[in-house]
Amino acid sequence: MCGILAVLGCSDDSQAKRVRVLELSRRLKHRGPDWSGLYQHRDSYLAHQRLAIVDPASGDQPLFNEDKSVAVTVNGEIYNHEELRKKLVNHKFRTGSDCDVIAHLYEEYGEDFVDMLDGIFSFVLLDTSDNSFIVARDAIGVTSLYIGWGLDGSVWISSEMKGLNDDCEHFETFPPGHLYTSKSRGFRRWYNPPWFSESIPSVPYDPLVLRRAFENAVIKRLMTDVPFGVLLSGGLDSSLVASITARYLAGTKAAKQWGSQLHSFCVGLEGSPDLKAAKEVADYLGTVHHEFHFTVQDGIDAIEDVIYHIETYDVTTIRASTPMFLMSRKIKSLGVKMVISGEGSDEIFGGYLYFHKAPNKEELHRETCHKIKALHQYDCLRANKATSAWGLEARVPFLDIEFINVAMSIDPESKMIKKDQGRIEKWILRKAFDDEERPYLPKHILYRQKEQFSDGVGYSWIDGLKAHAAKNVTDKMMLNASYIFPHNTPTTKEAYYYRMIFERFFPQNSARLTVPGGASVACSTAKAVEWDVVWKNNLDPSGRAALGVHLSAYDAEAPLISNVPSKVIDSIPRMVEVPGVAIHT
């Protein structure tokens, strides 16, 4: 992922302002270590830190149209750029970059071209003919983006909060699937799929249609001119991504340049059973597998860097980001610049354990809609920034807009978890890739139930974090938490510890407002808390209720949640697969 920074209409075209923009742009250099660019037109500045994935030789930014009257700084990948170029027959392109189509599409279609782009992107487009500008972010928010406003009337855009927090009077997360234009001075949603209204779909489940849609989503993400690999944790989602990539890699441009044998990557605490699961899948697929280990102390030592880069104080996001952050550094050291990952599946298919309690298909569907809309605040944030911290790009085929349209048009009755019919979580995804003639994965892996937690080994990571926080946060400090942090008040010492670090890096009120909060059970939305009366009395985002759900869902004699040892309960903030990370965080 590249880093973009734009300062628009700042009423200052001095050399000092240019120097300041360059200084702020360098805060994003980790995202794009390959090249830096800065374009100035009057009192507007477009800066770019490039991570070269497609056309490394000539695709430096900002990009321009033929007469340089339109300038663009972009972070992202446009997977259908070759198809779009064919529609722009009267245009001359300066580079082979996939993002080069944006300026030319604007010339042809104005601001209405954004929904023609198939990919992940954040961009700022400056039209020097009237000094107007357009800002846009991809449909789901796979790329990170922030917007801020200065007292001088300027508008600031940055891939990360650290690029603008010190210079804006107010800033916020740029909403996914939206445009912001200088002419309207407001946001407009350009992404309007059928599922967004949350009306209940009725298309019958067809496993082959779902399979082909996901295969297409993976295949289009093989567009690269640099070495790449897949993140593989041994869970269902990352294993399917790896299987499809291995199956279709041969014959692609990437294979001709870098070879047809796929590389896979996994990180975990030494001895974790999930490391063994990842190795088993890698052996089955024939990948060149790279297994990295980290210690609890390694993770603790990285916490401050993780919070600085991920830009959140959300406990579960920090826990999950830390091993991914450490793994990304190792991957980059091998010369790899892009990885394909498995985020998004649980949100689309109702894969989290609390979905066992969904009362009906209508509630389940609405919850999945809410979860997808919130991905940019959680898993997308983690995947984008944990990898970008080391100049690595993560691509997420489950969040392909065409695949989401297919998956979210299916009658949600097919997504309901029904133990008596043998339908475990994400059953329709598993069934779609159950091929007897050419198996994608061994049966026991394809139908492996979602793990509660890793036995013993996973606890040491969470327990280590809790113990470290307890050394740095006293009981007396917790008594004043609501006065020190009135917004999203931390309720545990671990949360308080993370919040202190976050506020040191990002002390502005605007910064703390970018992090979500509210009632949750194991990463559910607040609405889903109403699914079980017990949850209303035991709100616990750490997964306290989800553990009870898991036990009762598969064992009629399962103990009540109150009988589960607190150490076990507190170890599980989310039952979620983090691709490439062989611990359940």
From TrEMBL:
Record SUPFAM superfamilies: Adenine nucleotide alpha hydrolases-like (SSF52402), N-terminal nucleophile aminohydrolases (Ntn hydrolases) (SSF56235)
InterPro entries: Asn_synth_AEB (IPR006426), Asn_synthase (IPR001962), Asn_Synthetase (IPR050795), AsnB_N (IPR033738), GATase_2_dom (IPR017932), Ntn_hydrolases_N (IPR029055), Rossmann-like_a/b/a_fold (IPR014729)
Pathway connected to this protein: Amino-acid biosynthesis; L-asparagine biosynthesis; L-asparagine from L-aspartate (L-Gln route): step 1/1
E.C. number: 6.3.5.4
One GO CC term on file: cytosol
NCBIfam families on file: PRK09431.1
Protein name per its UniProtKB record: Asparagine synthetase [glutamine-hydrolyzing]
Origin species: Gossypium barbadense (Sea Island cotton)
